[in-house]
Write a structure and sequence with these properties.
Strand content of chain B: 15-25%
Number of strands of chain B: 14
Strand order of the largest sheet of chain A: 2-1-5-3-4
Radius of gyration of chain A: 16 Å
Number of helices of chain A: 5
Oligomer: heterodimer
Shape of chain A: globular
Number of strands of chain A: 5
Strand content of chain A: 15-25%
Shape of chain B: globular
Structural class of chain B: alpha+beta
Strand order of the largest sheet of chain B: 4-5-10-6-7
Order of helices and strands of chain A: EEHEEEHHHH
Largest sheet of chain A: 5 strands, mixed
Chain lengths: 161, 291
Protein backbone atom coordinates (compact mmCIF):
# COMPACT_ATOMS: atom_id res chain seq x y z
CA UNK A 1 0.00 0.00 0.00
CA UNK A 2 1.08 3.54 -0.74
CA UNK A 3 2.58 5.31 2.27
CA UNK A 4 3.32 1.97 3.94
CA UNK A 5 6.62 1.78 5.82
CA UNK A 6 9.13 -0.71 4.48
CA UNK A 7 11.87 -2.59 6.30
CA UNK A 8 15.41 -1.49 5.55
CA UNK A 9 18.46 -3.49 6.64
CA UNK A 10 21.84 -2.02 5.98
CA UNK A 11 25.28 -1.64 7.47
CA UNK A 12 26.53 1.87 8.13
CA UNK A 13 30.14 2.36 9.21
CA UNK A 14 30.33 -1.31 10.17
CA UNK A 15 27.22 -1.24 12.35
CA UNK A 16 24.10 -3.16 11.25
CA UNK A 17 20.79 -1.27 11.31
CA UNK A 18 17.20 -2.40 10.92
CA UNK A 19 14.90 0.50 10.19
CA UNK A 20 11.46 1.23 8.82
CA UNK A 21 11.29 3.90 6.15
CA UNK A 22 8.82 5.40 3.72
CA UNK A 23 9.78 4.13 0.24
CA UNK A 24 10.25 7.68 -1.11
CA UNK A 25 12.96 8.45 1.47
CA UNK A 26 16.41 9.22 0.08
CA UNK A 27 19.47 7.57 1.57
CA UNK A 28 20.89 10.93 2.66
CA UNK A 29 17.76 11.59 4.73
CA UNK A 30 18.03 8.25 6.51
CA UNK A 31 21.67 8.96 7.31
CA UNK A 32 21.09 12.50 8.52
CA UNK A 33 17.59 12.35 10.05
CA UNK A 34 17.33 8.78 11.36
CA UNK A 35 20.94 7.88 12.15
CA UNK A 36 22.00 11.47 12.98
CA UNK A 37 25.08 11.09 10.81
CA UNK A 38 25.18 14.65 9.51
CA UNK A 39 28.60 14.47 7.88
CA UNK A 40 27.13 13.83 4.43
CA UNK A 41 25.90 17.29 3.43
CA UNK A 42 22.84 18.27 1.46
CA UNK A 43 24.08 20.87 -0.99
CA UNK A 44 21.96 20.73 -4.11
CA UNK A 45 19.83 17.59 -3.61
CA UNK A 46 20.04 17.37 -7.40
CA UNK A 47 23.09 15.23 -8.20
CA UNK A 48 25.24 18.24 -8.99
CA UNK A 49 27.45 19.12 -6.02
CA UNK A 50 28.69 15.82 -4.57
CA UNK A 51 28.60 17.04 -0.93
CA UNK A 52 26.43 14.03 0.00
CA UNK A 53 28.91 11.48 -1.39
CA UNK A 54 29.21 8.26 0.62
CA UNK A 55 30.68 4.88 -0.24
CA UNK A 56 28.28 2.06 -1.02
CA UNK A 57 30.02 -1.30 -1.24
CA UNK A 58 33.28 0.61 -1.63
CA UNK A 59 32.15 2.88 -4.45
CA UNK A 60 31.56 6.64 -4.33
CA UNK A 61 27.84 7.33 -4.73
CA UNK A 62 25.66 10.38 -4.10
CA UNK A 63 23.36 9.63 -1.20
CA UNK A 64 20.85 12.27 -2.38
CA UNK A 65 20.37 10.30 -5.59
CA UNK A 66 19.70 6.86 -4.16
CA UNK A 67 16.49 5.71 -2.53
CA UNK A 68 17.25 4.46 0.98
CA UNK A 69 15.62 1.13 0.11
CA UNK A 70 18.08 0.70 -2.76
CA UNK A 71 20.84 0.44 -0.16
CA UNK A 72 19.05 -2.53 1.43
CA UNK A 73 21.57 -5.25 2.27
CA UNK A 74 24.50 -3.05 1.31
CA UNK A 75 27.43 -1.61 3.19
CA UNK A 76 27.51 2.17 3.53
CA UNK A 77 30.48 4.15 4.77
CA UNK A 78 30.04 7.83 5.63
CA UNK A 79 32.63 10.39 6.70
CA UNK A 80 31.91 9.41 10.32
CA UNK A 81 33.24 5.91 9.60
CA UNK A 82 36.50 6.92 7.99
CA UNK A 83 38.72 7.66 11.00
CA UNK A 84 40.04 4.86 13.20
CA UNK A 85 38.75 6.04 16.58
CA UNK A 86 40.67 9.21 17.42
CA UNK A 87 43.21 8.58 14.67
CA UNK A 88 42.26 10.39 11.50
CA UNK A 89 42.45 8.58 8.18
CA UNK A 90 45.55 9.55 6.14
CA UNK A 91 43.27 11.33 3.63
CA UNK A 92 41.76 13.47 6.41
CA UNK A 93 45.16 14.12 7.99
CA UNK A 94 46.71 15.12 4.67
CA UNK A 95 43.84 17.51 3.92
CA UNK A 96 44.33 19.22 7.30
CA UNK A 97 48.13 19.31 7.11
CA UNK A 98 48.11 20.56 3.55
CA UNK A 99 45.54 23.30 4.18
CA UNK A 100 43.03 21.84 1.75
CA UNK A 101 40.03 22.53 3.96
CA UNK A 102 38.55 25.99 3.65
CA UNK A 103 34.89 26.31 4.65
CA UNK A 104 34.70 22.51 4.91
CA UNK A 105 31.25 21.98 3.42
CA UNK A 106 32.50 19.90 0.49
CA UNK A 107 35.19 18.12 2.54
CA UNK A 108 33.21 15.01 3.62
CA UNK A 109 32.29 14.36 -0.01
CA UNK A 110 35.86 14.97 -1.14
CA UNK A 111 37.16 12.49 1.44
CA UNK A 112 34.62 9.85 0.40
CA UNK A 113 35.46 10.23 -3.29
CA UNK A 114 39.17 10.05 -2.48
CA UNK A 115 38.68 7.02 -0.24
CA UNK A 116 36.84 5.10 -2.96
CA UNK A 117 39.56 6.04 -5.46
CA UNK A 118 42.46 4.92 -3.26
CA UNK A 119 40.57 1.76 -2.31
CA UNK A 120 40.65 0.54 -5.90
CA UNK A 121 43.71 2.41 -7.14
CA UNK A 122 46.46 2.98 -4.52
CA UNK A 123 48.74 4.79 -6.97
CA UNK A 124 46.57 7.09 -9.09
CA UNK A 125 47.86 9.55 -11.65
CA UNK A 126 47.02 13.23 -11.19
CA UNK A 127 44.41 12.87 -13.95
CA UNK A 128 42.79 9.99 -12.07
CA UNK A 129 42.71 12.05 -8.85
CA UNK A 130 41.10 14.95 -10.72
CA UNK A 131 38.56 12.64 -12.29
CA UNK A 132 37.72 11.10 -8.90
CA UNK A 133 36.76 14.49 -7.41
CA UNK A 134 35.34 15.94 -10.61
CA UNK A 135 31.87 15.40 -9.17
CA UNK A 136 32.64 17.23 -5.91
CA UNK A 137 32.16 20.96 -6.21
CA UNK A 138 34.15 23.29 -3.93
CA UNK A 139 32.67 26.77 -3.68
CA UNK A 140 36.04 28.06 -2.45
CA UNK A 141 37.68 26.77 -5.64
CA UNK A 142 40.26 24.98 -3.49
CA UNK A 143 40.76 22.11 -5.87
CA UNK A 144 44.55 22.15 -6.22
CA UNK A 145 45.19 21.64 -2.51
CA UNK A 146 42.64 18.83 -2.42
CA UNK A 147 44.36 17.12 -5.35
CA UNK A 148 47.77 17.50 -3.73
CA UNK A 149 46.48 16.30 -0.35
CA UNK A 150 45.02 13.17 -1.94
CA UNK A 151 48.36 12.48 -3.61
CA UNK A 152 50.16 12.95 -0.29
CA UNK A 153 47.69 10.60 1.41
CA UNK A 154 48.09 8.01 -1.36
CA UNK A 155 51.83 8.04 -0.86
CA UNK A 156 51.44 7.77 2.91
CA UNK A 157 49.04 4.84 2.49
CA UNK A 158 51.53 3.09 0.21
CA UNK A 159 54.06 3.27 3.05
CA UNK A 160 55.86 6.30 1.67
CA UNK A 161 56.52 4.69 -1.74
CA UNK B 1 9.50 16.08 -2.04
CA UNK B 2 9.10 12.78 -3.89
CA UNK B 3 5.44 11.78 -4.12
CA UNK B 4 4.51 8.61 -2.24
CA UNK B 5 4.41 5.32 -4.12
CA UNK B 6 4.12 1.63 -3.37
CA UNK B 7 7.51 -0.05 -3.60
CA UNK B 8 8.52 -3.45 -4.92
CA UNK B 9 11.97 -4.98 -5.14
CA UNK B 10 11.50 -8.11 -7.26
CA UNK B 11 14.15 -10.82 -6.93
CA UNK B 12 13.97 -12.08 -10.52
CA UNK B 13 13.33 -10.69 -14.00
CA UNK B 14 10.18 -12.82 -14.22
CA UNK B 15 8.86 -11.33 -11.00
CA UNK B 16 9.63 -7.81 -12.28
CA UNK B 17 7.80 -8.49 -15.55
CA UNK B 18 4.82 -9.93 -13.74
CA UNK B 19 4.58 -6.77 -11.59
CA UNK B 20 4.78 -4.67 -14.76
CA UNK B 21 2.00 -6.63 -16.45
CA UNK B 22 -0.12 -6.27 -13.32
CA UNK B 23 0.26 -2.51 -12.83
CA UNK B 24 1.10 -1.36 -16.39
CA UNK B 25 0.87 2.45 -16.89
CA UNK B 26 0.61 3.07 -13.15
CA UNK B 27 4.00 1.49 -12.55
CA UNK B 28 7.48 2.73 -13.29
CA UNK B 29 10.67 0.78 -13.18
CA UNK B 30 13.67 2.28 -11.43
CA UNK B 31 17.22 1.05 -11.97
CA UNK B 32 20.00 3.36 -10.72
CA UNK B 33 17.56 6.26 -10.76
CA UNK B 34 20.26 8.79 -11.60
CA UNK B 35 17.95 10.48 -14.12
CA UNK B 36 14.61 9.29 -12.81
CA UNK B 37 14.95 10.51 -9.22
CA UNK B 38 15.63 13.99 -10.58
CA UNK B 39 12.27 14.09 -12.35
CA UNK B 40 10.57 12.42 -9.38
CA UNK B 41 11.93 15.13 -7.07
CA UNK B 42 10.48 17.71 -9.45
CA UNK B 43 7.21 15.74 -9.41
CA UNK B 44 7.24 15.54 -13.17
CA UNK B 45 6.94 11.82 -12.57
CA UNK B 46 4.64 10.48 -9.83
CA UNK B 47 4.18 6.74 -10.27
CA UNK B 48 1.69 4.85 -8.11
CA UNK B 49 3.97 1.81 -8.06
CA UNK B 50 7.74 1.73 -8.23
CA UNK B 51 9.46 -1.48 -9.31
CA UNK B 52 13.08 -1.35 -8.21
CA UNK B 53 15.25 -3.56 -10.44
CA UNK B 54 18.62 -2.20 -9.31
CA UNK B 55 19.27 -5.43 -7.40
CA UNK B 56 18.62 -7.81 -10.34
CA UNK B 57 22.17 -9.05 -10.74
CA UNK B 58 21.08 -11.46 -13.49
CA UNK B 59 21.05 -8.45 -15.85
CA UNK B 60 24.47 -7.18 -14.76
CA UNK B 61 26.92 -8.63 -17.28
CA UNK B 62 29.25 -7.86 -20.17
CA UNK B 63 29.83 -10.75 -22.58
CA UNK B 64 31.90 -10.78 -25.72
CA UNK B 65 32.01 -13.36 -28.46
CA UNK B 66 33.95 -13.12 -31.73
CA UNK B 67 30.90 -14.17 -33.74
CA UNK B 68 28.04 -12.73 -31.71
CA UNK B 69 29.67 -9.49 -30.73
CA UNK B 70 28.99 -7.69 -27.48
CA UNK B 71 26.12 -8.31 -25.07
CA UNK B 72 25.55 -5.92 -22.19
CA UNK B 73 22.96 -6.66 -19.52
CA UNK B 74 20.62 -3.71 -19.04
CA UNK B 75 21.52 -3.31 -15.36
CA UNK B 76 25.25 -3.03 -15.92
CA UNK B 77 26.54 0.20 -14.36
CA UNK B 78 28.22 2.81 -16.57
CA UNK B 79 31.49 2.50 -14.68
CA UNK B 80 31.70 -1.24 -15.47
CA UNK B 81 31.35 -0.50 -19.19
CA UNK B 82 33.98 2.25 -18.96
CA UNK B 83 36.46 -0.03 -17.22
CA UNK B 84 35.73 -3.33 -19.02
CA UNK B 85 38.93 -4.61 -20.69
CA UNK B 86 36.96 -6.43 -23.38
CA UNK B 87 35.01 -3.27 -24.24
CA UNK B 88 38.17 -1.17 -24.21
CA UNK B 89 39.74 -3.65 -26.63
CA UNK B 90 36.88 -4.22 -29.08
CA UNK B 91 34.52 -1.24 -28.60
CA UNK B 92 36.80 1.51 -27.33
CA UNK B 93 34.31 4.20 -28.30
CA UNK B 94 31.89 2.92 -25.63
CA UNK B 95 34.52 3.23 -22.91
CA UNK B 96 35.50 6.72 -24.11
CA UNK B 97 31.86 7.81 -24.15
CA UNK B 98 31.32 6.53 -20.62
CA UNK B 99 34.40 8.41 -19.39
CA UNK B 100 32.61 11.67 -20.15
CA UNK B 101 29.17 10.58 -18.96
CA UNK B 102 28.45 12.69 -15.87
CA UNK B 103 30.69 11.92 -12.87
CA UNK B 104 32.12 8.81 -11.25
CA UNK B 105 29.41 8.89 -8.58
CA UNK B 106 26.71 8.77 -11.26
CA UNK B 107 28.53 6.09 -13.24
CA UNK B 108 28.98 3.98 -10.10
CA UNK B 109 25.22 3.69 -9.57
CA UNK B 110 23.48 4.51 -12.85
CA UNK B 111 22.85 1.72 -15.34
CA UNK B 112 23.09 1.57 -19.12
CA UNK B 113 19.52 0.31 -19.43
CA UNK B 114 18.15 3.04 -17.20
CA UNK B 115 19.92 5.65 -19.27
CA UNK B 116 18.50 4.31 -22.55
CA UNK B 117 14.94 3.91 -21.23
CA UNK B 118 14.97 7.47 -19.87
CA UNK B 119 15.25 8.36 -23.57
CA UNK B 120 16.77 11.78 -23.10
CA UNK B 121 17.94 12.99 -26.53
CA UNK B 122 20.97 14.49 -24.79
CA UNK B 123 22.02 11.07 -23.48
CA UNK B 124 25.36 9.86 -24.80
CA UNK B 125 24.95 6.06 -25.03
CA UNK B 126 22.02 6.11 -27.48
CA UNK B 127 23.92 8.01 -30.17
CA UNK B 128 26.91 5.68 -29.88
CA UNK B 129 24.73 2.57 -29.99
CA UNK B 130 23.01 3.93 -33.12
CA UNK B 131 26.41 4.43 -34.78
CA UNK B 132 27.38 0.88 -33.77
CA UNK B 133 24.12 -0.56 -35.20
CA UNK B 134 23.16 -1.99 -31.83
CA UNK B 135 19.90 -3.74 -31.07
CA UNK B 136 17.95 -3.67 -27.83
CA UNK B 137 16.28 -6.79 -26.44
CA UNK B 138 12.99 -6.07 -24.68
CA UNK B 139 11.04 -8.54 -22.59
CA UNK B 140 7.50 -8.84 -21.30
CA UNK B 141 6.03 -11.86 -19.50
CA UNK B 142 6.68 -14.84 -21.80
CA UNK B 143 7.74 -12.68 -24.75
CA UNK B 144 10.82 -11.01 -26.17
CA UNK B 145 11.38 -8.68 -29.07
CA UNK B 146 14.29 -6.82 -30.64
CA UNK B 147 14.29 -3.11 -31.47
CA UNK B 148 16.96 -1.33 -33.51
CA UNK B 149 18.83 1.31 -31.51
CA UNK B 150 17.84 4.04 -33.98
CA UNK B 151 14.15 3.24 -33.56
CA UNK B 152 14.02 2.94 -29.77
CA UNK B 153 13.49 6.57 -28.81
CA UNK B 154 10.15 7.85 -30.04
CA UNK B 155 10.02 11.35 -28.55
CA UNK B 156 11.47 13.45 -25.74
CA UNK B 157 11.70 11.06 -22.75
CA UNK B 158 9.55 8.53 -24.64
CA UNK B 159 10.73 5.14 -25.86
CA UNK B 160 9.29 2.21 -27.78
CA UNK B 161 8.56 0.33 -24.58
CA UNK B 162 5.09 -1.02 -23.91
CA UNK B 163 3.83 -0.57 -20.33
CA UNK B 164 4.51 -4.27 -19.65
CA UNK B 165 7.99 -4.34 -21.20
CA UNK B 166 11.50 -3.82 -19.90
CA UNK B 167 14.84 -3.51 -21.64
CA UNK B 168 16.98 -6.49 -20.72
CA UNK B 169 19.99 -6.49 -23.05
CA UNK B 170 21.99 -4.36 -25.49
CA UNK B 171 23.45 -6.27 -28.41
CA UNK B 172 26.30 -4.74 -30.38
CA UNK B 173 27.45 -6.57 -33.51
CA UNK B 174 31.12 -6.81 -34.36
CA UNK B 175 31.80 -4.15 -36.97
CA UNK B 176 33.05 -5.27 -40.41
CA UNK B 177 36.80 -5.04 -41.09
CA UNK B 178 38.21 -1.53 -41.72
CA UNK B 179 35.64 0.16 -39.49
CA UNK B 180 36.12 3.01 -37.05
CA UNK B 181 33.74 4.69 -34.63
CA UNK B 182 34.06 7.84 -32.54
CA UNK B 183 31.91 10.04 -30.32
CA UNK B 184 32.47 13.52 -28.98
CA UNK B 185 30.25 16.14 -27.44
CA UNK B 186 30.55 19.82 -26.72
CA UNK B 187 31.10 20.23 -22.99
CA UNK B 188 31.68 23.33 -20.91
CA UNK B 189 33.02 21.09 -18.13
CA UNK B 190 34.07 17.45 -18.44
CA UNK B 191 31.08 15.25 -17.78
CA UNK B 192 28.51 17.84 -18.79
CA UNK B 193 25.48 16.87 -20.73
CA UNK B 194 26.57 17.71 -24.28
CA UNK B 195 25.35 20.96 -25.82
CA UNK B 196 25.50 18.84 -28.98
CA UNK B 197 27.21 15.52 -29.64
CA UNK B 198 28.03 13.42 -32.69
CA UNK B 199 28.72 9.70 -33.07
CA UNK B 200 30.12 8.55 -36.40
CA UNK B 201 30.95 5.09 -37.66
CA UNK B 202 32.75 4.59 -40.97
CA UNK B 203 33.52 1.36 -42.83
CA UNK B 204 36.03 1.43 -45.67
CA UNK B 205 36.56 -1.08 -48.44
CA UNK B 206 39.82 -2.93 -47.91
CA UNK B 207 41.40 -2.09 -51.25
CA UNK B 208 40.78 1.52 -52.21
CA UNK B 209 39.57 3.07 -48.96
CA UNK B 210 36.21 3.98 -50.44
CA UNK B 211 33.55 4.54 -47.77
CA UNK B 212 31.32 1.47 -47.90
CA UNK B 213 29.08 2.37 -45.01
CA UNK B 214 28.60 5.24 -42.60
CA UNK B 215 26.39 5.95 -39.63
CA UNK B 216 25.98 9.39 -38.09
CA UNK B 217 23.96 10.00 -34.94
CA UNK B 218 23.50 13.30 -33.10
CA UNK B 219 22.76 13.85 -29.44
CA UNK B 220 20.79 16.81 -28.08
CA UNK B 221 19.81 18.00 -31.57
CA UNK B 222 16.21 16.87 -31.73
CA UNK B 223 13.49 15.34 -29.55
CA UNK B 224 15.24 11.98 -30.05
CA UNK B 225 18.84 10.84 -30.58
CA UNK B 226 18.88 11.67 -34.29
CA UNK B 227 20.26 9.59 -37.11
CA UNK B 228 21.50 11.97 -39.83
CA UNK B 229 20.69 9.73 -42.79
CA UNK B 230 21.23 12.36 -45.49
CA UNK B 231 24.68 13.15 -44.13
CA UNK B 232 25.51 9.43 -44.15
CA UNK B 233 24.64 9.34 -47.87
CA UNK B 234 27.14 12.14 -48.52
CA UNK B 235 29.95 9.81 -47.43
CA UNK B 236 28.82 6.38 -48.66
CA UNK B 237 30.42 5.27 -51.94
CA UNK B 238 32.99 8.07 -51.95
CA UNK B 239 36.63 8.47 -51.13
CA UNK B 240 36.44 10.68 -48.08
CA UNK B 241 38.33 13.95 -48.14
CA UNK B 242 38.17 17.18 -46.17
CA UNK B 243 35.54 18.88 -48.33
CA UNK B 244 33.31 15.81 -48.19
CA UNK B 245 33.51 15.85 -44.39
CA UNK B 246 32.58 19.54 -44.40
CA UNK B 247 29.61 18.76 -46.63
CA UNK B 248 28.49 15.90 -44.35
CA UNK B 249 28.58 18.31 -41.40
CA UNK B 250 26.55 20.90 -43.29
CA UNK B 251 23.92 18.37 -44.36
CA UNK B 252 23.72 16.95 -40.81
CA UNK B 253 23.14 20.49 -39.58
CA UNK B 254 20.08 20.79 -41.84
CA UNK B 255 18.74 17.48 -40.47
CA UNK B 256 19.18 18.58 -36.87
CA UNK B 257 16.18 20.19 -35.21
CA UNK B 258 17.69 21.63 -32.03
CA UNK B 259 15.90 23.90 -29.60
CA UNK B 260 17.31 26.90 -27.76
CA UNK B 261 18.03 26.72 -24.06
CA UNK B 262 20.36 28.22 -21.49
CA UNK B 263 23.25 26.13 -22.84
CA UNK B 264 23.01 27.32 -26.43
CA UNK B 265 20.69 28.74 -29.04
CA UNK B 266 19.31 26.57 -31.84
CA UNK B 267 21.46 28.55 -34.30
CA UNK B 268 24.62 27.92 -32.25
CA UNK B 269 23.79 24.23 -31.97
CA UNK B 270 23.39 23.96 -35.75
CA UNK B 271 26.84 25.50 -36.20
CA UNK B 272 28.33 23.12 -33.65
CA UNK B 273 26.75 20.14 -35.44
CA UNK B 274 28.82 21.09 -38.50
CA UNK B 275 31.98 21.26 -36.40
CA UNK B 276 31.39 18.07 -34.45
CA UNK B 277 30.21 15.88 -37.34
CA UNK B 278 33.30 16.84 -39.32
CA UNK B 279 35.68 16.44 -36.38
CA UNK B 280 34.23 13.11 -35.22
CA UNK B 281 33.97 11.71 -38.77
CA UNK B 282 37.64 12.58 -39.28
CA UNK B 283 38.51 10.62 -36.15
CA UNK B 284 36.30 7.67 -37.18
CA UNK B 285 37.99 7.71 -40.59
CA UNK B 286 41.47 7.61 -39.04
CA UNK B 287 40.38 4.70 -36.87
CA UNK B 288 38.90 2.85 -39.86
CA UNK B 289 42.17 3.28 -41.74
CA UNK B 290 44.16 2.02 -38.77
CA UNK B 291 41.81 -0.94 -38.12
Amino acid sequence: MKGEMKKLKLTVNGKPYELEVKPETLLVDVLRQELKLTGAKVGCLDSACGACTVNIDGKAVRSCSVLALQANGREVITIEGVADGDKLHPIQQAMIDHGAIECGFCTPGMVMSAKALLGENPNPTREEVKEAIQGNLCADEGYVKYIEAIEIAAKEMRGGQ
Amino acid sequence: MIAAFEYFAPKTVEEALSLLSKYKEEAKMIAGGQSMLVVMKQRLLTPEYLIDVKGLTALDYIKYDEKQGLRIGALTIHRAIEKSPVIQKHFGVLSEMEGNLATIQTRNWGTIGGNLCHSDPAGDPAAVFIALKAKFKLASSGKERIVEADEFSTDYLEADLKPNEMLIEIQVPNPPPHSGTAYEKLMVMKGDMGVVGAAVSITLSGKDSVCQDARIALSNCSSVPLRAKKAEKVLIGKTINDSLLTEAGEIASTEAAPTSDVHGSAEYRREMVKVFVKRVAQLALERAKAA
